[in-house]
Design goal:
This protein is α+β, with helices and mostly antiparallel strands and 304 residues long. It folds into two domains: 112 residues, OB fold (Dihydrolipoamide Acetyltransferase, E2P) (Beta Barrel); 174 residues, Glutaredoxin, CATH 3.40.30.10. It contains four helices and 19 strands. The radius of gyration is 20 Å and the shape is elongated. The chain starts with a strand and ends with a helix.
């Protein structure tokens, strides 16, 4: 066994309540709370700390405060639509920004520095026991892991050998549509496509694994699965021992952690395992499409 240190960085300033008029729309924007502009769009004013700036990817990673009524404080990459928003930003800059969320995407703008740059020195925090595992690459055999499905039944990953298997990692409380909801929606779309195809492989399965086992119990996962119209014969939602969830995630480059406030942060990985039980494809990030997953699953089903 070894111990993995979570990645707490700094406590953020809490947003103060207030109200001002938007210069471009005339609608009120409530600092720290929600503005509902219509049934499918929400806007929030948020404060946070810049951890990484990626102009080429139109992305900035920010450790942000809680957004009341929407999501807890987290560390995550946010998309920007205009790279000019990132000009002059550096890791350590405290900022305020506007988060806009629709049913299918989210992005930030109006990024403003709010103070002097902070040194990003790691601080001590809680430890989590993990297994010492080696990274898996394409072509490597997936080790056996044991989890519990949405019905409370135990199963092993080796039970899927002989069929194409896609694995995604998420937690059900994640609200930002670019991340966990997009992954679940993509799996739902891939499931529907494979079920509708006349030339689809006979043996294939989807596995959604939660890395928030304390909250994502089997009943919670079952309700989440039903919300995504899952076919239990084709799609399993699972939880398990946190040490095992951490281990399988780490083997594919997934990282997740609770910071000093208890907020959950993570990156994104999706994996396709072929019928022989070997890693066929590791999809990094959230830009893959259901169609791409379907193609990979059809390839994976024919592997021997």
């Amino acid at each position: 066994m070894r111990r993995a240190l979570s990645i707490p960085i700094l406590l953020l300033l809490l947003a103060t309540s207030g109200c001002r008029k938007s210069s471009d729309s005339g609608l009120p924007i409530y600092t720290g709370t929600q503005l509902q502009t219509n049934s499918s769009r929400q806007m929030f004013q948020v404060k946070g700390l810049v951890l990484e700036v990626k102009p080429r990817e139109k992305s900035v990673t920010i450790k942000h405060e809680e957004i009341p009524g929407y999501m807890p404080g987290m560390t995550m990459p946010f998309d920007v639509r205009d790279t000019n928003e990132l000009a002059g930003l550096e890791a350590g800059d405290p900022v305020s920004f506007r988060l806009t969320v629709t049913d299918t995407e989210g992005w930030i703008d109006q990024i403003r520095k709010t103070g002097a740059k902070t040194n990003l020195l790691p601080t001590s925090g809680p430890f989590r026991r993990v297994r010492d595992v080696e990274p898996l690459n394409e072509g490597d055999l997936l080790p056996e892991y044991h989890f519990t499905n949405q019905l409370g039944h135990a199963f092993a990953t080796t039970e899927f050998k002989g069929q194409a298997l896609a694995i995604e990692f998420l937690f059900t409380r994640c609200p930002l549509p670019n991340f966990c909801p997009r992954m679940a929606n993509n799996f739902e779309a891939a499931q529907n496509s494979l079920r509708a195809m006349t030339n689809a492989p006979v043996r294939w399965h989807l596995l959604t694994l939660s890395f928030d086992p304390e909250f994502d119990t089997p009943p919670v996962l079952k309700a989440y699965a039903e919300n995504h119209h899952y076919d239990p014969a084709r799609w399993t939602f699972a939880t398990g021992d946190l040490m095992d969830i951490t281990a399988i995630g780490e083997q594919f480059g997934l990282t997740f952690w609770h910071d000093e406030t208890g907020s959950l942060s993570h990156n994104v990985r999706t994996v396709v395992i072929d019928a022989s039980g070997r890693v066929q494809k590791i999809l990094i990030g959230n830009q893959w499409t259901p169609g791409e997953l379907v193609v990979e699953m059809m390839k994976a089903a024919t592997a021997k």
